[in-house]
Every structure is written in C-alpha cells, then in structure tokens.
Design goal:
By secondary structure, this protein is an alpha+beta fold. It has a single domain, classed as Gamma-glutamyl cyclotransferase-like (Hypothetical upf0131 protein ytfp, Roll). It contains three helices and seven strands, in the order βαβββαβαββ. It has a four-stranded antiparallel sheet with strand order 1-5-2-3, with helices on one face. Strands 4-6-7 form a three-stranded antiparallel sheet, covered by helices on one side.
C-alpha cells in the first residue's frame, strides 16, 4: 500500500483531487512537521532534513517497498520515529493521508503533476517522512519544495488555503 500525505490542490474539494486521487482506499486527516508557504496558486512545503527518511525514485514499486520496510521496522521498534514535533522553527502542517493500492500507476501521474523528475531538475522532490494520523505515527511520501526561489509568504497556521479573518467593522 502507498501512503501519500497531501497539503494542497490534491486534498478533497480542490482542483486536482478528482483527477489524481479518485479511488483512494482511505483518506484520513494527518499532520507533518514543516514550514508551509503560499506559492503561486498552490502551497509549497519545507520539512526538516532530519525528517527525510528516503528520497523518491523513478521506480514506484521500489519506493512502496522502502515505505513498507521502514514501517515494518517501526513496528518492531517505535523509537525509530522522532517525538520532537515541537522543534523550534518548525510548524505543524495539516493535510490528508491517502492510501492507494496502485503505486505503479498512481505515483508516476502525481510525480508529473508535481514536477518531480528523479533524474533531472524538479520543482518538487518526493520524500518519505513521519506523519501523525490521530495518535499514530506512520511514514508517508510527500512532495517538498526543491526550487527554493518560488516560496512566498509563510503560512504559520500550517493549513492551506489560509483562512483569513474578516475585518471587524
């Protein structure tokens, strides 16, 4: 099974969800540690380097196997997942955790959407990080910003789109 954390246009109700995420076996609210920015019409995310457990490749089945292998190891020793979610300088980023059973077709399509090219220049890179779903920690693939020049204003709430408060009259 492929676990994918999404925080922008792939979430339910947003423009890319139906085309790329229809058929998910499960969708749950989740969170990761990072910094979320308002990009040009979509959000961009940074995560701490120490949270990156693996980098995505051009082989979706190998990437799914890496995710499963690391998840199995955590089942044997839960101390492998860091508990320091409140590390200074990092926020909680809120999104959705998708579970898919078709990584060999799903990942290449989403990689293209996200501009992830394992062997070349990319807008995003796909990395495996710990995520929290309810009170459980799991590993999920996530797209993080590769081209640092496009980030804009930081969204400290960790939720995109940022909810703006109405001006009191």
């Amino acid at each position: 099974m492929l676990k994918l954390f999404v925080y922008g246009t792939l979430k339910r109700g947003y423009r890319n969800h139906d085309r790329y995420c229809r058929g998910a076996l499960e969708i749950r609210n989740a969170q990761v540690r990072g910094r979320l920015y308002d990009g040009p019409g979509f959000p961009v995310l940074e995560v701490p380097d120490e949270d990156v457990l693996a980098c995505g490749t051009a082989d979706p089945l190998a990437d799914t196997a890496t995710q499963r292998r690391l998840s199995d190891r955590v089942g044997e020793d839960p101390r492998l997942i860091r508990e320091d979610a409140a590390k200074p300088g990092w926020d909680t980023v809120y999104g959705e955790m998708f579970t898919f059973d078709d990584p060999e077709t799903r990942l290449p399509a989403i990689d293209r959407l996200e501009g992830f090219r394992p062997a070349g220049s990319s807008l995003y890179r796909r990395v495996l990080v710990p995520a929290v779903v309810g009170s459980v920690r799991e590993f999920a693939w996530i797209y993080v910003l590769e081209a640092m020049g496009i980030k804009h204003r930081r969204i400290p709430s960790g939720l995109w789109p940022e909810r703006r408060r109405a001006n009191p009259e």
